[in-house]
């Protein structure tokens, strides 16, 4: 197993051990590409959503949020192009009976070339892939796979089928009677719920161009490939903004949102060298420009957010298929027009993995006298699932009672934990492993002068403070303002 595989394996193992992510339906041997978020994972996920919502909606006077339904009229997906064109190029290995996305097999080979310092080969292969994708040449994709000796990860053989297109939408029936039921789809994206509500939001909110509509919601895709943990899931969550602009200004807004969104990622404190923009060689049918923000995971650079200039495609399509005018009257230029749209779309689950991967560290703290190490999650304090742990030094002499009194004062404003089991050192390590920024130790001196010891996660330094100041200290350290002001 390679070092990169070890890193991902360790992150996955840590996520399960400490209650971040579990395989779904595990007692029934699981369900491929479906995961459940545990007690700490759901807290971290909610914090990521809050960070996105506050920065996109709360901080912008011209952006509002909605929550549209998962089920929508099936004609919506005909209008959007998903019924006819929402496909991935798939290839099967005849020996393992496994199915793969052809372009991703080739991308993995490019990553291996890069890691092996075969940069010329990587560059040439990337060029061949770009050309094949741009021209929808499925035959060429298979030829590239054969030429570069790409083998099935399971069987290790090169016994491939031809490359075929595979539609990713889940369908079901709506209606009480089988004969009278109608085929509907689980939405493969949340964007269309925004577009079909464009007029409702614009009129009820008296919105003026430019303005945005944001949404966080579930989406569903029949992903054939289950790999790289929560990178590719069949049930996932998106955080999307559709920003409506005057035609002719879309590229200016496209560049502005590129800069804004990258800044949002970097505000969390990650290594800026691990992020990059990757322009689409072949933008989707609705876009005149598209770029991905990619993060360098242990298994290579992968998309975490997409930014697209969608032109007026979606609103125009819905105007045609619904027969309703999807236009805006602009009083500044005295014209009616269908707005153009800039989209920022971020996969919440991928963002979760980005935050977790960026935070995960195995530290060797050994000295000449003693071997010591810790696994620590360096979350930004605002995202940390638990903001503070309150720890009585011992389980006697009134220390637990005092500790719970302090906990009671803090829990209304902060997510906190109480722990009195094992030595104080082991309890510190447990909190490091879940990313708690601060541990508050209550000792005998606390009973005398109402002071406690604060131990900081990242530096492991300790300081003595008054218990009455804990709330303001935690607010300054973990509050949203410190993070949002940098975005």
UniProtKB/TrEMBL annotation:
<feature type="binding site">
    <location>
        <begin position="221"/>
        <end position="223"/>
    </location>
    <ligand>
        <name>ATP</name>
    </ligand>
</feature>
<feature type="binding site">
    <location>
        <begin position="347"/>
        <end position="350"/>
    </location>
    <ligand>
        <name>ATP</name>
    </ligand>
</feature>
<keyword id="KW-0808">Transferase</keyword>
<keyword id="KW-0067">ATP-binding</keyword>
<comment type="similarity">
    <text>Belongs to the class-II aminoacyl-tRNA synthetase family.</text>
</comment>
<feature type="binding site">
    <location>
        <position position="189"/>
    </location>
    <ligand>
        <name>substrate</name>
    </ligand>
</feature>
<keyword id="KW-0963">Cytoplasm</keyword>
<dbReference type="GO" id="GO:0008168">
    <property type="term" value="F:methyltransferase activity"/>
</dbReference>
<dbReference type="InterPro" id="IPR004154">
    <property type="entry name" value="Anticodon-bd"/>
</dbReference>
<dbReference type="Pfam" id="PF03129">
    <property type="entry name" value="HGTP_anticodon"/>
</dbReference>
<dbReference type="InterPro" id="IPR002315">
    <property type="entry name" value="tRNA-synt_gly"/>
</dbReference>
<feature type="binding site">
    <location>
        <begin position="343"/>
        <end position="347"/>
    </location>
    <ligand>
        <name>substrate</name>
    </ligand>
</feature>
<dbReference type="Pfam" id="PF00587">
    <property type="entry name" value="tRNA-synt_2b"/>
</dbReference>
<keyword id="KW-0648">Protein biosynthesis</keyword>
<feature type="domain" description="Aminoacyl-transfer RNA synthetases class-II family profile">
    <location>
        <begin position="169"/>
        <end position="392"/>
    </location>
</feature>
<keyword id="KW-0547">Nucleotide-binding</keyword>
<feature type="binding site">
    <location>
        <position position="101"/>
    </location>
    <ligand>
        <name>substrate</name>
    </ligand>
</feature>
<keyword id="KW-0489">Methyltransferase</keyword>
<dbReference type="GO" id="GO:0032259">
    <property type="term" value="P:methylation"/>
</dbReference>
<dbReference type="InterPro" id="IPR022961">
    <property type="entry name" value="Gly_tRNA_ligase_bac"/>
</dbReference>
<dbReference type="InterPro" id="IPR045864">
    <property type="entry name" value="aa-tRNA-synth_II/BPL/LPL"/>
</dbReference>
<keyword id="KW-0030">Aminoacyl-tRNA synthetase</keyword>
<dbReference type="InterPro" id="IPR002314">
    <property type="entry name" value="aa-tRNA-synt_IIb"/>
</dbReference>
<keyword id="KW-0436">Ligase</keyword>
<feature type="binding site">
    <location>
        <begin position="303"/>
        <end position="304"/>
    </location>
    <ligand>
        <name>ATP</name>
    </ligand>
</feature>
<comment type="function">
    <text>Catalyzes the attachment of glycine to tRNA(Gly).</text>
</comment>
<comment type="subunit">
    <text>Homodimer.</text>
</comment>
<dbReference type="InterPro" id="IPR006195">
    <property type="entry name" value="aa-tRNA-synth_II"/>
</dbReference>
<dbReference type="GO" id="GO:0004820">
    <property type="term" value="F:glycine-tRNA ligase activity"/>
</dbReference>
<dbReference type="InterPro" id="IPR036621">
    <property type="entry name" value="Anticodon-bd_dom_sf"/>
</dbReference>
<feature type="binding site">
    <location>
        <begin position="236"/>
        <end position="240"/>
    </location>
    <ligand>
        <name>substrate</name>
    </ligand>
</feature>
<dbReference type="InterPro" id="IPR027031">
    <property type="entry name" value="Gly-tRNA_synthase/POLG2"/>
</dbReference>
<protein>
    <recommendedName>
        <fullName>Glycine--tRNA ligase</fullName>
        <ecNumber>6.1.1.14</ecNumber>
    </recommendedName>
</protein>
<dbReference type="InterPro" id="IPR033731">
    <property type="entry name" value="GlyRS-like_core"/>
</dbReference>
């Amino acid at each position: 197993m390679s070092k990169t595989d070890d890193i991902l394996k360790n992150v996955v193992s840590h996520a399960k051990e400490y209650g971040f992510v579990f395989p779904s339906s595990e007692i029934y041997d699981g369900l491929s590409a479906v995961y459940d978020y545990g007690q700490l994972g759901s807290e971290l996920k909610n914090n990521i959503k809050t960070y996105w919502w506050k920065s996109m909606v709360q901080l912008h006077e011209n952006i509002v949020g909605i929550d549209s339904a998962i089920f929508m009229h099936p004609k919506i997906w005909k209008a959007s192009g998903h019924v006819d064109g929402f496909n991935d190029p798939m290839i099967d290995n005849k020996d393992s009976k496994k199915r793969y996305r052809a372009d991703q097999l080739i991308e993995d080979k490019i990553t291996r070339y890069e890691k092996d310092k075969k940069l010329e080969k990587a560059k040439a292969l990337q060029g061949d892939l770009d050309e094949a994708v741009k021209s929808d040449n499925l035959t060429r994709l298979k030829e590239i796979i054969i030429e570069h000796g790409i083998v099935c990860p399971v069987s290790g053989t090169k016994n491939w089928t031809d490359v075929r297109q595979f539609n990713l939408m889940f369908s079901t029936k709506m209606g009480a009677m089988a004969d009278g039921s109608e085929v509907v789809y689980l939405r493969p994206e949340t964007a269309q719920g925004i577009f079909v509500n464009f007029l409702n939001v614009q009129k009820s909110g008296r919105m003026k161009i430019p303005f945005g509509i944001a949404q966080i919601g579930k989406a569903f895709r029949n992903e054939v490939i289950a790999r790289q943990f929560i990178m590719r899931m069949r049930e996932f969550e998106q955080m999307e903004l559709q920003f409506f602009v005057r035609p002719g200004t879309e590229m200016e807004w496209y560049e502005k949102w590129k800069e804004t969104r990258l800044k949002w990622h970097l505000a969390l404190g990650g290594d800026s060298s691990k992020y990059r923009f990757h322009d689409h060689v072949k933008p989707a049918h609705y876009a005149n420009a598209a770029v991905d923000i990619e993060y360098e995971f242990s298994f290579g650079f992968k998309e975490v957010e997409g930014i697209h200039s969608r032109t007026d495609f979606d609103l125009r399509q819905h105007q045609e298929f619904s027969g309703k005018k999807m236009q805006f009257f602009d009083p500044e230029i005295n014209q009616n027009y269908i707005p153009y749209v800039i989209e920022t779309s971020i996969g919440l689950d991928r963002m979760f993995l980005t935050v977790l991967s960026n935070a995960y560290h195995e530290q060797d703290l050994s000295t000449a006298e003693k071997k010591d190490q810790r696994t620590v999650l360096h979350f930004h304090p605002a995202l940390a699932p638990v903001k503070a742990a309150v720890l009585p030094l011992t389980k006697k002499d009134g220390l637990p009672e005092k500790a719970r009194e302090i906990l009671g004062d803090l829990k209304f404003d902060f997510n906190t934990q109480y722990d009195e089991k094992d030595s104080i050192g082991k309890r510190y390590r447990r909190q490091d492993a879940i990313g708690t920024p601060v541990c508050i130790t209550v000792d005998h001196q606390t009973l005398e002068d109402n002071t406690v010891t604060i131990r900081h996660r990242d530096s492991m330094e300790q300081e003595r403070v008054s218990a009455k100041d804990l709330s303001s200290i935690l607010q300054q350290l973990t509050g949203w303002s410190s993070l949002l002001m940098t975005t």
